[in-house]
Design a protein that fits this description.
Shape: globular
Distance between the termini: 60 Å
Strand content: over 45%
Radius of gyration: 27 Å
Largest sheet: 26 strands, antiparallel
Structural class: mainly beta
Number of strands: 42
Number of helices: 6
Helix content: under 10%
């Protein structure tokens, strides 16, 4: 056993709308991407067109300098028609900039202005306002979401690249966040089929922006940011985003320190080619907090007698861990290079590469182990603590090539997208169990004084035969994964009223892993085809009705694919199939309403074989049915709104364990979810916002033995555009300071929501 002791001169500055002290919206002219069609032409015709369109160089000198190339002078906001909380289009879902009304899939686009006005600090905050998304606690060390009843800690992407390591992300360099619902394998490949989240980062687009912010607030919060960028000349633009944040927290003994830097450069060697380069260094160090245990009711917890979360004397701030030893540390370095080229004949190509290095370590002392698995006994005199630490370092390399060809074939206009993705992911997964001074892996603690201040020795257990209560070996795996993928998608437009979409993706998932405890190597390869099809009917340009069918797969090694065992080696991938019917309507040019009903079937979930420990039957199944509704944009020039409602019925169809049986509700999924946020520009200087969130009750685990009560939360904000340079805002989360249970990671790791939290931020633009 190994022991460790836990001791350019470009155009005039373009300023964001919120910086303009006016009650009117700035003019934004948006052309839906499918309306401007670039039909294939010959190369001579292309050159002739360019010659007729370009002014002679001498003539340009006699008048005024020629403007920079169109793409460098067009901001990200302009390309996507983004104003305030509203976005008109995105390229995330289809690999081609497409109006949201023409995307046959439920999705939410969260703009940087909405993130700023709400002062969102993490994904937990931002997704509360997205219908059909619930938050998983993630062991207090990572982002983890439950989208349409499917839990995933890996369905995260950045600029369309997989960002699947378990860590907490920040929004200092986020241009927007896109949440896609249902299987998206055609575009993104393997993964849990409930949905995914993508971060689109700020890029050097040639727009001049210089902005610094300083923030302070509750729990000792202090945060500073810098966003600086401009066009250096007609063909080069640069941008730099930097931030630092330090804070204590709502929970006793919790702390946070994180910082990041992200320089980007865009080069334009010729009119038809653009090269984007980006590097990011990000570091996050915080207290890992797995929350509170449940209280065992008289007669024991069951589906018919569910337990409730426990808070000593109603105090939600009490920490059930070790102030010195609980920690989660991640360091992420990412380099990206993207080349885009327009061949001028209707064909464009994008080739992108990401290289990412993730160093991740977390250590938890938490309620667990013992006969009640960490729950407080009925007499409220005792509960058990457990401990472990975990290293999950990983290196990712991905290359994507995406072609888009637009041309008319007779009366039908086609947008044909096809491409490849190749990837290599390698990493380690090493876990050590904590042993307390009593010589075992379990410590009895007083639930009214649960914080632990003593020492713990972390030991790696190579086998399951130990004298300290550990009955299974700790993980110690080195793994490698090769991904080879190709896809094709065609959107056929029959006039203005009908679109037919069909596509298929092939994925090869080649996984190998070595169990370092036994020096046993295993390997498995999965080949899968993921089809998708949709029909869009448009009675008018601003209104669409659609139906969609899609499939995705998740290999048996799981979200994090860190190991292979004899049992998982023979399992087939889990399968996700969705049918969705929906409608989208641009009520006005900057107000979009969308609604969808869907059915999502998940099959091949593993069920433990009671006669052969470590082996499984691929017989588990879940069905999720629901309705989602969303309204985003400007009701009037002064009134912005985001309204979201979701009804989600997520049920176990076939058992996945002895206690997770047919009829049970899936963990953390409320039947009803509601969120409404409004911002009103009262005067050219002053604006105010009010938000409300509602989640009905849910269960901490799919065994349905610990119920999390439903809750309401109210948020508010006050904004001042002081002058052309200065802006200030005060935001208050949970203004009525109501206690609630926000999330969980099982029945005895339940996280309370944060109490009233105020943040004051001042920004200066020059």
């Amino acid at each position: 056993m190994v022991a460790m002791t836990g001791s350019l001169a470009g155009p005039a500055p373009v300023r964001a709308q919120s910086q303009t002290p006016s009650s009117q919206l700035p003019p934004v002219n948006v052309t839906a991407p499918n309306e401007t069609r670039r039909v294939a032409r010959s190369a001579p015709a292309k050159r002739a067109d360019r010659g007729s369109q370009r002014p002679r160089r001498q003539a340009a000198r006699q008048t005024e300098p020629a403007p920079p190339p169109k793409e460098l002078s067009m901001s990200q906001d302009a390309r996507t028609g983004t104003v305030g909380v509203y976005s008109n289009s995105t390229s995330v879902a289809t690999k081609s900039n497409t109006a949201l009304v023409n995307i046959p899939q439920s999705m939410s686009a969260i703009t940087k202005d909405f993130i700023r006005d709400q002062n969102f600090q993490n994904l937990t905050d931002v997704t509360r306002y997205v219908p059909g998304v619930a938050v998983h606690q993630g062991e207090g060390n990572r982002d983890e979401l439950v989208i349409r009843g499917v839990d995933s800690s890996a369905n995260f992407f950045v600029n369309g690249f997989r960002d699947d390591v378990q860590y907490f992300r920040d929004f200092y360099n986020a241009q927007s966040i896109e949440v896609l619902k249902g299987p998206s394998a055609l575009t993104f490949g393997r993964g849990a089929g409930g949905g995914l989240l993508n971060r689109t980062l700020k890029e050097a687009d040639g727009t001049r922006v210089y902005e610094a912010t300083a923030q302070t607030g509750s729990w000792g919060d202090r945060r500073v940011t810098l966003d600086a960028g401009q066009a250096i000349n007609a063909n080069v633009a640069a941008r730099l985003n930097v931030f630092y944040e330090g804070a204590d927290a709502f929970r006793d003994f919790n702390h946070l320190e994180r910082y990041g830097i992200n320089p980007t450069v865009t080069l334009r060697p010729d009119e038809d080619t653009k090269i984007k380069l980006s590097y990011e260094y990000f570091h996050d160090d915080r207290t890992a907090d797995r929350g509170n245990p449940s209280l065992t009711p008289f007669g024991g917890a069951s589906r018919f007698n569910p337990a409730a979360p426990f808070a000593p004397n109603g105090d939600l701030q009490t920490f059930f861990g070790s102030p010195r030893l609980n920690q989660a540390v991640s360091t992420v370095q990412t380099g990206m290079a993207i080349i885009e080229h327009d061949f001028g004949n209707g064909l464009t190509v994008r080739n992108g590469t990401i290289i990412a290095d993730y160093d991740k370590f977390y250590q938890n002392i938490y309620p667990g182990n013992g006969p009640l698995a960490g729950a407080v006994n009925t007499a409220q005199t005792a509960f058990n603590l457990a401990a472990y630490n975990h290293t999950t370092n990983r290196e990712n390399i991905f290359n994507q090539t995406d072609f888009v060809y637009k041309a008319a074939l007779g009366p039908v206009f086609h947008t044909l997208a096809f491409g490849t993705e190749f990837g290599r992911q390698t990493g380690v997964d090493i876990r050590n169990t904590g042993v307390f001074p009593n010589g075992t892996n379990t410590l009895v603690q007083n639930p009214f004084a649960p914080t632990y201040f003593g020492p713990i020795t972390f030991i790696h257990h190579f086998t399951g035969v130990n004298g300290d209560g550990v009955t299974t070996p700790d993980s110690n795996s080195r793994y490698g994964l090769n991904v080879e993928s190709g896809y094709v998608r065609d959107t056929a437009e029959f006039g203005k009223m009908l679109q037919l979409i069909g596509g298929v993706r092939f994925d090869r998932f080649d996984m190998s892993a070595t169990d370092m405890n036994t020096n046993t190597s295993r390997q498995r390869t999965d080949d899968r085809l993921s089809p998708a099809a949709a029909i869009i009917v448009k009675p008018m340009e601003t209104l669409s009705f659609y139906t969609m069918y899609s499939v995705s797969y998740l290999p048996a090694s799981g979200d994090q694919f860190s190991s292979l065992t004899d049992g998982t080696l023979i399992l087939t991938p889990q399968k996700f199939v969705t049918e969705e019917f929906g409608a989208k309507w641009n009520i006005n040019p900057k107000l979009l309403y969308s609604a969808a009903v869907y059915n999502l079937d998940r099959t091949n979930q593993p069920l433990a074989d009671g006669n052969r420990p470590g082996f499984f039957f691929p017989s588990g199944a879940t069905r999720v049915q629901g309705f989602e509704s969303n309204l985003v944009g400007y009701v009037t020039p002064d009134w912005q709104t985001t309204f979201a409602y979701a009804y989600t019925d997520a049920k176990i169809v076939n058992a996945t364990s002895a206690t997770i049986v047919p009829g049970n509700r899936v963990q953390l999924v409320p039947y009803n979810q509601f969120a409404w946020w409004n911002k009103y520009q009262i005067t050219p200087v002053w604006a105010a916002s009010l938000g409300v969130i509602y989640f009905s009750d849910s269960f901490a685990n799919s065994d349905d033995t610990v119920r999390l009560p439903g809750f309401w939360r109210f948020d508010a904000g006050l904004f001042a555009n002081i002058d052309r340079n200065w802006r200030a805002q005060l935001t208050v989360e949970n203004i009525f300071n109501r206690g609630y249970w926000a999330s969980a990671d099982g029945n005895n790791n339940i996280s309370p929501g944060q109490g009233r939290t105020a943040r004051l931020k001042v920004s200066y633009r020059w």
